[in-house]
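Subject: design request, 468 residues
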């Protein structure tokens, strides 16, 4: 085992608070830069006008769907790997990694074949109208190369599952920086417009996958080894991956369905300009909440290892520490976004043909920031459930927020307040959903503690032993 792999495992099984910090910081940096790319993408596309922004907005549900499947497989495999590392079962972790890769390949092929013919009718169903052609230009290159989206998600999840968050960060940084550089070149330099933005994303994904492929299949210096010679098909491993992976995929898909519904609601209330506001503003929301995704990936790995080691103390402490840290971080971001709402909106609507949505975009940013602090409670509760292998609980709290609460709330408030009412409804639904999620998580952790003997029980904490 490499020195890096050994350090990662020691971090994962050591002090939970230190592990949360060490594992989350690289992810926060990498994912924040990726989101900066998404904002830069909207910035450059915004120069083409509001129709171009809307065309990308109609692709959002498909984007969430793709991420849903890839991230779901990665989360399922990562959770299973972390729990085996916590239980000191290295061979089991290796076999989980091989199964995860094979499932990833099969899912990527199927999703690519399904997405391409369904894109046009679904865009039309959402009300894309005159921008359907532009939406397809953006969508097709990404549909063809779904395998790279999946591989980057799964390979990164494997590295994070063994505590090697720093190395998982580098390919994400490469992809984000390269994308920022290529966007203006392909969109304006080569005159490819919206199609160029999509091609720039594809090129960046392919390049960023190369170091991951090298580390896992050639250099082989990770703690978890992907070696086909030792592979043995095992239905129990597939079931274990699916226990978290399928609910995680469905959870992400519920977000895709949620965005599909929100785009449809927004299109009917505010037309294509409303969709442009939603798609552009949501990039800012993604950047604002991106630190939470980095922290959530750390929580899933640390709580997974704690659950595998049957350590109630580490499970409880890592969860509560991450929630407190995240709440105050998001509170500061929310205040900053509220104060800077107009300058941010101006940056995306600087051209004359996009200035018509500037006022609505400013309103969106000033309203939506009120749910940022609440996201910490919901997202980290979900991550804890995933780490503990309780994917169905994570799924239920996400579906409650995205499907049961948010669309009806958006419709109700839109009747009262118009386009701004949609954003108010989104805030109300997220706050209620987060409160329910956090309460459920606290009760579940308490029950786990009682089952294991609590803080004073013999299984409450295991000291770290060197893993070879």
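Subject: RE: design request

Done. Sequence follows.
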């Amino acid at each position: 085992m490499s020195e890096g792999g050994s350090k990662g495992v020691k971090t994962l099984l050591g002090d939970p608070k230190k592990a949360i910090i060490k594992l989350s910081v690289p992810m926060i940096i990498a994912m924040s830069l990726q989101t900066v790319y998404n904002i830069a993408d909207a910035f450059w596309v915004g120069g083409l006008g509001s129709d171009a922004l809307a065309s990308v907005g109609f692709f959002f549900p498909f984007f969430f769907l793709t991420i849903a499947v890839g991230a779901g497989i990665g989360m399922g495999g990562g959770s299973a790997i972390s729990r085996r590392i916590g239980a000191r079962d290295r061979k089991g972790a290796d076999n989980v990694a091989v199964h995860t890769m094979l499932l990833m390949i099969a899912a990527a092929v199927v999703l690519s074949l399904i997405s391409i013919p369904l894109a046009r009718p679904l865009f039309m169903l959402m009300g894309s109208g005159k921008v359907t052609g532009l939406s397809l230009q953006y969508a097709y290159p990404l549909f063809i190369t779904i395998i790279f989206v999946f591989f980057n998600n799964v390979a990164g999840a494997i590295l994070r599952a063994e505590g090697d968050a720093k190395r998982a960060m580098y390919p994400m940084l490469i992809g984000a920086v390269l994308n920022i550089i290529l966007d203006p070149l392909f969109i304006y330099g080569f005159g490819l417009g919206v199609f160029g933005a999509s091609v720039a994303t594809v090129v960046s994904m392919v390049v960023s996958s190369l170091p991951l492929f090298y580390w896992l299949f050639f250099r082989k210096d990770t703690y978890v080894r992907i070696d086909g010679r030792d592979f043995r098909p095992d239905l129990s491993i597939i079931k274990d991956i699916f226990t978290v992976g399928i609910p995680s995929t469905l959870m992400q898909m519920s977000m895709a369905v949620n965005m599909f519904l929100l785009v449809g609601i927004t299109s009917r209330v505010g037309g294509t300009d409303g969709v442009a506001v939603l798609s552009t503003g949501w990039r800012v929301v993604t950047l604002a909440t991106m630190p939470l995704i980095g922290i959530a990936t750390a929580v899933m790995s640390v709580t997974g290892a704690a659950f595998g080691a049957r350590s109630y103390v580490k499970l409880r402490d890592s969860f509560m520490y991450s929630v407190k840290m995240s709440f105050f971080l998001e509170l500061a971001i929310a205040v900053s976004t509220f104060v800077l709402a107009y300058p941010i909106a101006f940056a995306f609507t600087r051209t004359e043909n996009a200035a018509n949505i500037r006022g609505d975009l400013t309103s969106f940013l000033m309203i939506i920031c009120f749910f940022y602090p609440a996201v910490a409670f919901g997202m980290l509760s979900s991550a804890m459930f995933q780490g503990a292998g309780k994917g169905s609980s994570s799924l239920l709290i996400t579906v409650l927020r995205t499907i049961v609460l948010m669309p009806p709330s958006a419709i109700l408030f839109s009747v009262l307040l118009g386009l701004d009412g949609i954003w108010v409804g989104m805030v109300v639904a997220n706050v209620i959903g987060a409160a329910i999620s956090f309460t459920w998580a606290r009760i579940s952790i308490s029950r786990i503690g009682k089952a294991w003997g609590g803080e004073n029980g013999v299984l409450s904490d295991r000291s770290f032993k060197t893993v070879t």
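The longest helix spans residues 235-308.
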